[in-house]
Amino acid sequence: MAKPLIVNAVELLRRPGTTKDIEVAVAVLDFEFDDSRIVDTPVDISVHLESLSTGIHVSGTAHATWAGVCRRCLAPLVERMSVDLDEMYQKGTYDPDAYEIENDQINLLPMVREGLLLAVPLSPLCREDCPGFCPQCGADLAETQCGCVTTDSDPRWSALENLKGVFPDDAP
Ligand SMILES: [Zn+2]
Ligand SMILES: [Zn+2]
């Protein structure tokens, strides 16, 4: 487990209003993501801890790099993402959404881990208006104009369209 993500909370717990700022870079390996989309570059974490009467509020950001492919053109993508962190840590958790303060220590790892996993895009795009491939000839439309005539007809109708001429017209 990554030591820099274990924060001694004794001072914070002693007096509400106490704050603490932490900036660390942690190896991806320490998170045990078990998710190949998160690339092996350091995760940068910057958090602000504030002691409240109800617990310790942690806010800040985490940066990590993910890799994937564009869902339309299959171009490989590698991007740095930023995740906002905003969570409560409590001793003997009474809020089910809060993380637990164990032995007067705050472990930031599960919070950052969860935030990053939720932030990795499930079906990324290389750019918002990526044209993808031509549905007829498969040309990469970002690279070439293939010249295919694409009509926006309903595929079910075009299937019927194709049947025209296959059967002899038996009208009287
Ligand atoms: Zn694309
Ligand atoms: Zn085409």
Radius of gyration: 26 Å
Number of domains: 2
Order the strands across the largest sheet as they lie in space: 2-3-4-5-6
CA(first)-CA(last) distance: 83 Å
Listed once per kind, the bound small molecules are: zinc ion
Task: Please state the overall shape, judged from the principal axes of the Cα atoms.
Answer: elongated
Q: Give the number of DSSP strands.
A: 7
Structural class: alpha+beta
Biggest sheet details: 5 strands, mixed
If you had to describe this structure to a student in words, what would you say it looks like?
There is one protein chain. With 172 residues, the chain is of the alpha+beta class. The chain folds into 2 domains: 3-119, no CATH class; 131-167, no CATH class. Helices cover 15% and strands 33% of the residues. The chain contains 3 helices and 7 strands, in the order E-H-E-E-E-E-E-E-H-H. It has a 5-stranded mixed beta sheet. It has a two-stranded antiparallel sheet with strand order 1-7. A hairpin with a 2-residue loop joins strand 3 (43-52) and strand 4 (55-69). The chain is elongated, with a radius of gyration of 26 Å. The N and C termini lie far apart (83 Å). 17% of the residues are buried. Bound molecules: zinc ion (2 copies). The site of one zinc ion has 7 residues, from loops.
